[in-house]
Description:
By secondary structure, the chain is α+β, with helices and mostly antiparallel strands. It is 42% helix and 26% strand. Strands 1, 4, 6, 7, 9 and 10 form a six-stranded mixed β-sheet that branches. The chain has a four-stranded antiparallel β-sheet with strand order 3-2-5-8, with no helix packed on it. Strand 6 and strand 7 (70-72) form a beta hairpin. It is rod-shaped.
Amino acid sequence: IISPTTQPITKSTPVFHITSVTINNKARKPDSVFQLKYEEKNVEIGYALLSYRNPGDDLLYHKINDGEWALLSKNSGSLKLAALSPGSYTVSFMLGDPGSKNAINGASVNFTIEKPYWATTWFWALCISIISILVFTYYKWQTGILKKQNQLLIEKVQLERNLHKSVLTSIRSQMNPHFFYNALNTIQSFIVTDDKRNASTYLSKFSKLTRTILEMTGK
């Protein structure tokens, strides 16, 4: 926004006023409030100075925000500010030496340049949220894979245990110790009673049965 001078005007008092404001080579109304985008960082302020006194008596100064006063050419008719950083700006003008009591405050131009979206708080908050979600998703995915691998490993170990138990059960069912004990006792009794025929018959059958069991055990 442009603040006009508040000094009383007399015939001997120079008159200073803002004639135009151009932003990125596009003219804006001098009396408007300037809320600029990040790309709009080239500002040109046009001004005019009307004085009835000797031109050398009126020195024109300007400053930006709380900076130092700098001498400005009255004949140039404009102040160019290029590649401004985001932030709030107040461009002030003064007629005469700023340290003199006779100095006259001129108009001032106020404008604000917005930060780029990648420098705003909401953008970084959004980026952090997205990264957190991705990290959490990746962590859950990896955890799920590890759980599946562990479950498969546990199932494999359990199957191997069950298989071993089944094999042992099968062997024990085929080669029952009680059966072997009874069969050998029977053959022994035939030998003790000198029943060679039955002893030989049973021993032959027992040997064939044992051989068959051992062959089947391998299968």
